[in-house]
Design a protein that fits this description.
The chain has helices spanning 4-8, 61-76, 151-154; strands at 22-27, 31-37, 89-101, 110-121, 124-133, 136-150. By secondary structure, it is α+β, with helices and mostly antiparallel strands. It has a six-stranded antiparallel β-sheet with strand order 1-2-4-5-6-3. The longest helix is centred in the middle third of the chain and has 16 residues, at 61-76.
């Protein structure tokens, strides 16, 4: 449905930490489904040697959460994109609760992030959802909070 042009038009992230490949479904203001293909070509796998056990190839859990949060960011900015963190509204991660990991994600897996808006209060959005691989839940997200603030109030004051 929507590829890198649309994603990069909504997120400030770029290689190697742009962790959303494609949006397959969007219900603006309500829900989004996005994909992230995990491959051995990613920088976090570069130093793994031939003796690395299979579990050593597990996708880093912080990156799994980051990828899901970027999908939430795409949903939050769907109707008002602004990938420039120096102007307009800046997307800020507020916190998370109820995040559970159910199985290891490995290279070759395609993550399907399902994000739902739980509630929106002014410039703060609360999301919930899950990530799946081949229909199996690999992570559930109880709540993640994202806030938007004007770029000018986040700049350091001139001395």
């Amino acid at each position: 449905m929507n590829g890198q042009r649309e994603i990069r038009g909504r997120l400030p992230h770029r290689y190697p930490v742009l962790l959303v490949d494609r949006v397959t479904h969007v219900d603006p203001g309500r829900a989004l489904t996005a994909l992230k293909a995990v491959t051995c070509n990613e920088p976090w796998y570069a130093d793994l040697g031939p003796d690395t056990p299979e579990e050593g190839f597990g996708y880093p859990k912080p990156l799994l959460v980051e990828s899901w949060c970027q999908s939430a960011g795409v949903l939050a900015t769907w109707e008002a994109p602004n990938p420039d963190v120096l102007t307009g509204q800046v997307m800020l991660f507020g916190g998370m609760t109820g995040v559970e990991f159910h199985r290891t994600v490995l290279p070759g897996d395609v993550l399907e992030h399902r994000v739902r808006v739980e509630r929106r209060v002014d410039d703060t959005v609360m999301f919930e959802g899950e990530s799946l691989v081949d229909g199996e839940t690999v992570m559930t997200v109880g709540r993640i909070v994202m806030a938007f603030r004007p770029a000018e109030v986040l700049r350091p004051e001139a001395s």
